[in-house]
Structure to design on (268 residues):
């Protein structure tokens, strides 16, 4: 269990940097069961060419899979979130509770720089606290050698030069870039590597710029990721800071056209 001080420090890191690690959330027997289940699902799946930078890309709904249901209701994870003030995050309400199994295959390519926020026209993009985050469980230890995650801390709230040089994420273009694209696979001066132990829980604000390296090892590096959202239009109980006028004045009934391209709401 996180002590109140540790939980607060982790929340502060999440708000400031856009990511944080919560160590040792899944025990070894649960990890083993997830390894066996993901290997079974991967064996029955054919990796689509457009997913090669993300590896296998398999969506599994909790209603279809007891082990995934167990993961998406895993008490130690949700207790840690609650201790941090993130107890109102739930699996994304726009679709059934699900995970995405993502991999780096042995020798697999790096993943391009991108962020996963899809509502840059919505003033919610100004939120100083997270509204939409990924919960990521890596099933093996990660390091630069097997293509660990890298992030640009603070890039969820502030525009960095690389924001204006990227091809938009995933289906909007990045899936089709050349393997040697000099920007999409670059080392950014501000980047930080996120090395994890199997069983840690990694949280990322959907707005943060992130990428992953090439897997130089002979072992598959598997990640089970799920998107979680808090109730839109509410202020978190822990928030004591100023509330951006754009958030206060946001019309909850307006239709904001989706966009993966950070616009005027992301300021330098
Ligand atoms: O492979 C990883 O570590 C990150 C995956 C990711 O960010 C994505 O597929 O959107
Ligand atoms: Fe991502």
């Amino acid at each position: 269990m996180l002590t109140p001080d540790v939980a607060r420090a982790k929340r502060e890191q999440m708000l400031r940097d856009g990511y944080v690690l919560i160590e040792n959330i899944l025990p070894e027997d649960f990890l083993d069961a997830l390894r066996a289940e993901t290997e079974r699902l991967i064996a029955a799946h054919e990796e689509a060419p457009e997913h090669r930078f993300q590896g296998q890309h398999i969506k599994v709904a909790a209603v279809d899979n007891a082990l995934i249901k167990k993961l998406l209701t895993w008490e130690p994870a949700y207790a840690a979130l609650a201790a941090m003030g993130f107890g109102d995050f739930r699996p994304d309400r726009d679709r059934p509770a699900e995970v995405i199994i993502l991999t780096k295959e042995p020798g697999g390519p790096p993943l391009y720089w991108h962020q996963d926020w899809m509502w840059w026209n919505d003033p919610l993009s100004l939120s100083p606290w997270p509204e939409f985050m990924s919960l990521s469980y890596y099933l093996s230890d990660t390091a630069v050698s097997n293509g660990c995650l890298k992030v640009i801390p603070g890039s969820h709230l502030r525009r960095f030069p690389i924001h204006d040089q990227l091809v938009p994420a995933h289906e909007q273009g990045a899936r089709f870039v050349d393997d040697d694209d000099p920007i999409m696979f670059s080392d950014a001066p501000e980047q930080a590597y996120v090395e994890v132990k199997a069983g840690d829980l990694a949280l990322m604000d959907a707005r943060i710029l992130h990428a992953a390296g090439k897997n130089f090892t002979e072992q598959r590096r598997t990640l089970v990721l799920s998107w979680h959202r808090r109730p839109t239009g509410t202020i978190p109980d822990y928030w004591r800071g100023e509330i951006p006028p754009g958030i206060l004045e946001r019309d909850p009934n307006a239709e904001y056209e989706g966009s993966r391209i950070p616009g005027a709401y992301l300021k330098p």
